[in-house]
Amino acid sequence: MGSLQGRDLLSLADLQSAEVQALLNLAHQLKKGESTGPDLRHKTLGLVFRKASTRTRVSFTVAMHQLGGHVIDLDPSVTQVSRGEPLEDTARVLDRYVDVLAIRTFAQSDLETFAHYCQIPIINALTDLEHPCQALADLLTIQENFGKLQGLTLTYVGDGNNVAHSLLLGCALVGMNVRVAAPNGFAPDREVVAKAKSIAQNSEAIVTDDPKLAAQSAHVLYTDVWASMGQEAEADDRIPIFQPFQLNADLLSLADPSAIVLHCLPAHRGEEITNDVIEGSQSRVWDQAENRLHVQKALLASIL
Length: 304
Ligand code: CP
Ligand code: NVA
Hints:
This protein has 304 residues and is α/β, with parallel strands linked by helices. The chain has helices at 17-32, 55-66, 87-94, 108-117, 132-146, 162-173, 190-199, 211-215, 235-242, 249-252, 275-278, 285-303, and strands at residues 44-49, 70-73, 100-104, 122-124, 153-157, 177-181, 205-208, 220-223, 260-263.
């Protein structure tokens, strides 16, 4: 297993299985107070967020503070980025000031530009393609619930989006079976699916348009919004297309009796998930949101 020190996290596929497991173990220790993590008092995390965020922004900020470090909000709307300064130039300058950047943006290629021009580690805090920090928190939540990951089945129903992509890769890395049920035309990216299949050793990575089949005997049912940030104009048109993919009590009844329900949040109750399911006894969404803090602490502790 290579050290994560100094490395970027642009995609979950940047990590090896053992590195994911080590991050989850450290996150668990940090959560339980069995480790305090390194002292990052002279380190600074920069947040470059081009999209809204509650969980990611706050959990990264608190994680860095708890490790003794500092955070600068480099909101692109108030830096020279908004006036057209090239990313290549911004990246080379920020590289000289801060120790790590967490970036939330649209194109994965913008993240790659930062990574190319920066020596410091770059963390994907959500792009249109992936949300790796979310998937790490999801895996921690599943491991806490079941005491293991290998051999379990996660079924994601809905849009084949950034969250679905990182779950495909994350589940494959830890030996979980992963099924994505999405409407025709909204399936996950073929290259990501191929990557997940190539990573999966003794587990399966399946894409289907049949949510009921996908939900059968699953240990985790997961969903996300039907229209992601940047797709708001399509939201109303998508509702009838995605309705059969709603995570509701009928779908949950098909899963394993011990199944848990996850949602990365923010949720649209009555659309991708019903109120009774997200508020029900099988929901773990608040633990899942809390775990963003613990895995990102483990990530910062490991890469800085
Ligand atoms: N799940 C998630 O990334 O939430 P935010 O958009 O609030 O950061
Ligand atoms: N797929 C959603 C996730 C939000 C955390 C989006 O990109 O808007």
